Each structure stands twice: as C-alpha cells, then as structure tokens.
Amino acid sequence: MRDIPSPPSGTPWRPAPVDANGLSMVSNADGQRFVLHTTAGDRTFLPGVDLGNTTPGHVPADVSISAAQYRAWFAAMTWLGIRVVRIYDIHPPAFYQQLAAYNQANPDRPLYVMQGVSLVGDAYVKKGNLYDQQVTDAFRQELKDATQAVSGQLNRTTLPGRIGGEWTADVTPWLAGWLIGSELDPAAAAASDRKNADAKAITGKYFRSTSDATPTERWLANRMNDLAGYEAKKGLSQPIAFVNWATTDPLRHPEEPLRQEDLLQLDANHVLPTANWPAGTFASYHAYPYYPDFLRLEPALQAQADPYLAYLESLRKHHGSMPTMITEFGVPSSIGSAHLGPLGRNQGDHSEVEATKMTAELLRGMQTRGLAGGFLFEWVDEWFRYTWNTVAHQVPNRRQLWRDPLTNEQGFGLLAMDAARKTDPISLIDAEGGWPAEKVTAQTDESYLHLEVKLGDSPPGSMMIGLDPLPGLTGTPMAGSADRRPDAIFALNLVSHTGQAYVRQQLDPLQLDGDIPDAARGPAPDGWRAYELLTNRARTVPSTGAKLPIEMQNAGLLRHGVWNTDDPDVDSRALWHLDGDNLSVRVPWAMIGFADPSTHAVGVPKAGKLTTQRSPGVSVTLSASGTDQVLGPVTWDDWNQPAATERIKQGAEQFRDAALAVTNG
C-alpha cells in the first residue's frame, strides 16, 4: 500500500466523555441525533467503514491480519476521513493493541470503534428458535467476552470458529457504541416467533421491550440488557443497537416480489432503554441501493428523485424518536453484477472510480437526509466472499485462494487486494513476420491469464482469441476456422475497440443457475453462448400481478481500456488494450470456464450440477482472416497460498472529500 500522508487537519476529534447517572459516556442518543462528545464539541454524523477479518487465502475463522496491517490501515482510514471503524466480532488482540497505540499517538484524530457481536454460528436457523438454550447461552457468553476484550481483560482459548488469545489493551475511551446480532434469516426468525409466542416481555434494568414487541424483539431486548449490565459494572454506557437489514425492516412493501423480503418486520422502536442506560439506543440498518426489488417497484419511492435516499428517509421518519444509522452500504467495483438498482447503482459492473463516486454521493445524501451516520461496506476486498449468481460456478472450499472479478461481493473494499502471484512470462511465439502475431507471451496470476501480443505487419481489423482449457471437448469449430475448437473465445474488433466473450455451450455456467430460456440470452453463434450472468429471475409483483422478466448482464462485453492504476484514464473493468501494434489482454479465469484455477479445475455442468475436470493448461489460438496461429499451452503450478498487494482504490479521494465534508473535517 502506498505511503499514507499525515491525517488531514481540522478540528480535534479527541474524546470528551460526559457523566450521566454515574456512568461515563463518550456518545449517546439524543432524539434523532447520535452524539459523539469531543473536545471540539458534539459530532452528530459519523462517517465509518466496516472491517472484516480476512486476507486473501483465508476464511473468517482464520487469524490472518497482522499487527502491521492494522497499523497501516488505521492511518489510511483516518486519511480518508473515516472516523469510526465497525467490526462484526471480537478481533484478535492485535486489533485493540494497535488501535489504542494509534489513538494515543494521534490524540486529536483518533479512530473510534463500533464493536459488533454476531450470533454464534447458525444454530438458530437450523432449529428455528432464537430461544434455544444453547443459542442464547453461546451469544450471552460472546457478549460478555466482547465487553472484556474492549477493556483489555479477556483471556480465552482458541476453539473452532473462535479466536483465542490475551486481550490487554483498553479501547473503551474510543468505544462509540455496540451493534449486536446478525442479519436475521426471516423464515427462521418467524418460526422462532411462532414457537415462543408466549415469551415474557422484558423489563430489564437497562432495556425493556414495548407491549407490541415480537418474541424476536423481546429476545434482542434481553440480550441488549445483558450487554448493558456488563458495561455498567465498569461505570460505562454506550449506545447499543441490534443489527437490522432492509429484508426485515419495520415497513411494509406490498410491491416486493419475493415473499422472504417482506416476511418479517423488526422494529427498533420496540426495544427501548430505561433511565438507567443514559447512552440510549439507535436504529441500525444494512441497506444497499440495489436490493430488495421494492426500491425499483414502490410508486412512492419511484416518484422521488432518489428512491434509495427516499427509502432511508422513510426509515428515519419511522424511528422519529431515535437516531437512524446506515451501518452497511456501498456498491462494488467489479466486472460482474448481481442486481440492478435505481439510478444505475447496480450490484457490480462499476469501475473503481465510478463505485467510489457513488458511495461518496450516498454518504453526502445520508447526512442531508438527517441520518446519524453511514458506514461503508467495506474496508478491504475479501476473496472468500461469494454471491448468488456465481456461487454455483465455483469450487466452494478454495474460493479464498483466487480472486474472481465476476463475483461482485469480492469488490466492495476501499482497499484493493490485487493478485500478486504472477508467473514468469512464457513465450508462446517469437517469429518475425508471423501473422496475425509476431510475438506472444503469457503470464498467470490469481485473477487472470495475461497475454501480451505483438501484431504482425498490416494487422487485422478483427481477431479472435481462442482459449482451450480442456482439449478433449468437441463441438462447433470457431467461426472462421475449419479445425480449431477452443472452449472460450474473445472476439475483438481492433478498429472499433469493441469485443465480446463467448463460451462453448457445454461449459456455459448458466446451466447451473436453473432453466433460463433462450429468449433471455444474448446472440451467439450456434454451439456457443455469450458470457452472461443472471441478475434477476422471473417474478410477480404481489400488489398488481405484473409479471417481471428474467434480467441478465452481458458480463462478457469486453471493455477496451487501461487497467494500469497510475493512468488517469484507468478502468478497472477493462480486459484489453491496443496501443499501436501491441495488444494486451487479461482473461478472468471464470470466462475460460475455471471453477478453481489454483487446482486447474474447469467447471463442467452436468444435469444442472457442477463437476470439474483438470486442465493440462490453456492452449491459445489467434485467428484472423482465415489464418490460425495455434500456441501454448499456457501452464502454471497449482497453489495453496496466494499472494496479494494492497492498494487504495482509484477514486477513493472522492469518498474522502465526502467524509470530510459531512463532518466539517
């Protein structure tokens, strides 16, 4: 990661805790305001970022973030105008040690923390019961451990799925609040409500449930009361909220096509603090500008200039007596998309510059609409993440070992994790006078197969690059060639700078996503398919009965451009670039059919299920005007440990400017 300048100048954010009912609080809810007390006065809008706990090659259960990374990341966050880092669970001791050290070294520009405590596992989903004693006991213990971790008083052993160690750093001077729980599965929570309809109302010392609270809300009120009790024993009070998301918001959405997206309503208004908990509570939402579909279908929202911000404002108005904070939002920078959103804010298919511009606009909009804060999801790209429209195309237990630019969930970070395990160049041809190419070299990394092509004299106006990972497959020859039968094609128009990726019908991954009619697919030669992703299934609007069609993304639309991050015209989605006679191409592994390039595994759909065959390497064919050059194969070694380099994404300064603007520095 590049060197980070000193934190931006501005008024101090040094904490100035106040006393209330004998408890010390650095922040509290005050009507619709979330107030952070600083020596320069009260701050009432918090720009934050969500920090996961993985690095490339790892899954969340691993401890993989180093102390040096935490140290560098905290400096970078502050430089980007971020004032709060939200974590979902207890992080390793190094997080708290480095945060305390950073804040002590930068007392006027500290980084506050919003501590999360997720549900332990998914037992409540399997049992359909939040009140199950094992579920409740495990979560109460995790809450207790978290309060000890933030004050540097925890020592516990490592268990499967649980971080162990000794926590000695006290970060409570910068503890802005708590977010407990997880995005609840609506069907499981609804089942829990039915099983526990007679659950008693909560009248705790610190939190209570209202008379109209559901059993789920009562259970959450009880856990918030537990947590408050642990903190009050230390003489502290911080705002506590439970995690909620648009799927289980308290509003009704009769135009929402998917039943599960409006099945369950959770309302923070039904879980209230008592006078013994002066820091209060707030409403917290994970809310994105592209999902659920009601954002595109509700007439009241569509009548507004910005349906997403109008939706957030409706949430704020619903919670009129408490602050409303958006604790997850963002759009990913990725080639692949998984859903369409109003105003072009889709779930992917954005360059880094475009994505950060959108998130900056959203952060400003949240502040102007009276929300209490916005936490961008997320700080760093995480390779282990999956999304619904590519998950069936991949070998699941090795996803963290390579980066797929077609999977949008891997591109939400402000900090890129670029593939860095680049092989030495392989010469595929070096023949003066060759045509259509005189020289071709290839390299591979965890994201792409790279080709550097020196075109021959009188270069063609168009060219097809055939890519063949499984030479044994048979089928329709490449158009314009009598013999070659590659499994994937990059068809490039070198004059108009347009291109399209195709995959052999036998390897088309959309076969794994259900029955998709031919009428929904883009044009392609016989035996081939345009490389596409499903972004929405056919559905019906309940309130009107209107039938909505399948929606697709032409993810194989090959953008011409530069991807060198030092170039001002960079487009992180570009896959080819022609500069004179020099052609550069990078091919995402998924576009050649790979389900796991780290083991050479190519996905071969059979009866709607993923099977794999091992590739001996990728043969390359360059075809133009009836001439074929058969090259390769490109080979590489299997890997079990990837390499990555960190980089602040292009356009991140736009988010920085917005974060500084909404807080006046």
Q: Strand order, main sheet: write it out.
A: 13-11-8-7-6-19-16-15
Number of domains: 2
CATH third-tier fold name of the largest domain: TIM Barrel
**CATH homologous superfamily annotation of the largest domain:** Glycosidases
Structure summary, number of beta strands: 39
* Largest sheet report: 8 strands, parallel
Rounded to an integer in angstroms, the radius of gyration calculated over CA atoms is 26 Å
Which structural category fits the helices and strands? alpha+beta
User: How helical, in percent, are the residues?
Assistant: 10-25%
Strand-helix topology:
Blueprint: E1 18-20, E2 23-25, E3 27-30, E4 33-38, E5 41-43, E6 46-51, H1 67-79, E7 84-87, H2 93-105, E8 112-117, H3 123-127, H4 133-150, E9 154-156, E10 165-167, E11 175-180, H5 186-195, E12 207-209, H6 215-232, E13 240-242, E14 271-273, E15 283-286, H7 294-297, H8 299-302, H9 307-318, E16 324-329, E17 334-337, E18 348-350, H10 352-368, E19 373-377, E20 415-419, E21 426-430, E22 437-444, E23 448-455, E24 462-468, E25 488-493, E26 498-504, E27 528-530, E28 533-536, E29 539-540, E30 547-548, E31 551-553, E32 576-579, E33 582-588, E34 594-596, E35 601-606, E36 609-614, E37 618-624, E38 627-634, E39 644-648, H11 652-663
Parallel strand pairs: 6-7, 6-19, 7-8, 8-11, 11-13, 15-16, 16-19
Antiparallel strand pairs: 1-2, 3-4, 4-5, 9-10, 12-14, 17-18, 20-39, 21-22, 22-23, 23-33, 24-25, 24-37, 25-26, 26-27, 28-31, 29-30, 32-33, 34-35, 35-36, 37-38
